[in-house]
Structures are given as C-alpha cells and as structure tokens.
Amino acid sequence: MKVMLLGAPGAGKGTVAKLLTALDGSVQISTGDILRAEVRAGSDLGKKAEAFMKAGDLVPDSLIMDMMEKRLQQEDCKKGFLLDGFPRTIPQAQDLKKMMAKLNIDLDMVINIDVPRPVILDRLCTRRTCVNADCQAIYNVKSNPTKVEGICDKCGSPAVQREDETEAAITHRLETYNEKTAPLIGFYEKEGKFKNVPCTSSDDVVNAVKEALKL
Ligand code: ADP
Ligand code: ZN
Fold first, then answer.
1. Which of 49, 59, 115, 134 is 20 to 30 Å from 34 by CA-CA measure?
2. Is 9 close to ligand 1, i.e. is its CB under 6 Å away?
3. CB 165 within 8 A of CB 124
4. Separation CA 88–CA 184 (nearest Å)
5. Which residues are catalytic?
6. pLDDT (tens digit, 9 = 90+) per residue, 62-95?
7. Residues 6+ positions from 14 with CB-CB distance below 8 Å
8. Helix pair angle (90-103, 184-191), 10° resolution
9. Going from the N-terminus, what domains does the chain have, and what CATH number goes with each?
C-alpha cells in the first residue's frame, strides 16, 4: 500500500505505520527516525537538522525534500510505503505532489489520525523511547510500561524520554503542528482519497485502512 499518515505529534502515526507494515510488507518511512539517525551519524544533514529538532521546530523544507526524493527512489519503496511525519507543511505537500508525478507514484490514500488533544498531551509526556538505534521501541509509563523501569524489554538498552519531549518542547511542537501541519487536512480533502479517522486506539486506524483498501 502507498499511504500517507497525518496527525498531531503523539497521534500514533509511528505505531499505526508499524502495524500496517505487518499487513503487506510495505516499508515505514518516518522522517523523524531518518533525521534522528542522521544526527547520530553526525552527517551533514544531521548537523544542519539537530538544533531545529531539539527546539521542537521543523527542519527546513528544502532539506526534507532532498532527503525524501532519495528515500522514495530506494528499491524497498516499490512494494509500498507508509509516510509517517511527512509532509509537515503546505510547501512540502505541494513539492511532494510534483515529485510523485515525476517518479510515477500514486498514493492509495491519505489518513488523518484524529485524536483528542488531552489524550495527545498525556501520551507525549509519558512516552519513553529505547535509545538503541536498531530497536527504537516505544513505551508509555502508564499504558505500556517497560517490565524493568527505564530498561527496554526487547533489547535491554535504556528507555528514556526524548529530548524534544520535555513539557516546553511538547507545547511548542503542538503549536507548530496547529500552525504549519494542520492545514494539510484541507489540502488533502481537496486532493481526494482523504479519510479522517476519529480514534483513540491504533487498531481503529488499521481497521479503517483495511476496509478502505480491502485488505
Ligand atoms: P513527532 O513525534 O513530533 O511526530 P517526529 O519523530 O516525526 O516527531 O519528528 C521529530 C522532529 O523531526 C520534528 O520535531 C522536526 O524537528 C523534525 N521533522 C520530522 N519530520 C519533518 C518534516 N517532514 N519536516 C520538517 N521537520 C521534520
Ligand atoms: Zn530496545
């Protein structure tokens, strides 16, 4: 499947993407994960992106578009992909439209994961992420805690609060979302193939995709 997942930070795009990849072997393309890997690797892109990310600001559109143009042409995307965290701005969406026309890629659908604001806030403050780059398992101190506090169940590495998940950074990310990313809903409503899924659980979204794509 070729699906775009929209939604506020903490809406569960990453979790839903992982569940959907299990259905048909499509790959998850998370711009946040790619950027964090670039930062860890100390690449040129990583160095340019790091300060924006720490502050909870968006990385400039041009850097993201170059990165995604390369990513979408990799072999593993042919089977299908789930866009998680991209596009994040109207200019990114406009450029993506041109890029997909050029690369002959057609999206099956655009899903907006619509989660109530209080649920989002609570989730982001209680999220813990495994620091091991090859694992990156996600936990929640309330709803999905690690068996041993602060230690990843899967690989034994520390599971910690991300640097951009302090309260100040979270508030800022949500403001950025409202201002820059939420307008994408209107953009894709006009483009068609758009579906809003009001939900509190990731399974609601998976079921909506299964139904729409007859999987
Ligand atoms: P979230 O939990 O907010 O969905 P992500 O892991 O998707 O977080 O992204 C983390 C950070 O990476 C963002 O706050 C932003 O700085 C940067 N980022 C990720 N995707 C994009 C994008 N498409 N455009 C600009 N910046 C991005
Ligand atoms: Zn782990």
1. 115
2. yes
3. yes
4. 8
5. 13, 88, 127, 162, 173
6. 999 999 999 999 999 999 999 999 999 999 999 9
7. 28, 30, 32, 33, 84, 85, 138
8. 40
9. 2-115+174-213 (3.40.50.300)
Hey, whose CA ends up nearest to atom 9 of ligand 1? 32
User: Which residue in this structure is represented by tokens 């994040």?
Assistant: 88
Q: Whose alpha carbon is nearest atom 16 of ligand 1?
A: 53
CB 68, CB 86: distance < 8 Å: yes
Cα 52 to Cα 34: distance, rounded to the nearest angstrom: 14
Is the CA virtual torsion 185, 197, 199, 31 positive or negative?
negative
127 lines ligand 1 (CB under 6 A): no
The pLDDT tens digits of the residues spanning 134-187 come to 999 999 999 899 999 999 999 999 999 988 888 888 888 899 999 999 999 999
| Cα 86 to middle of ligand 1, angstroms | 8
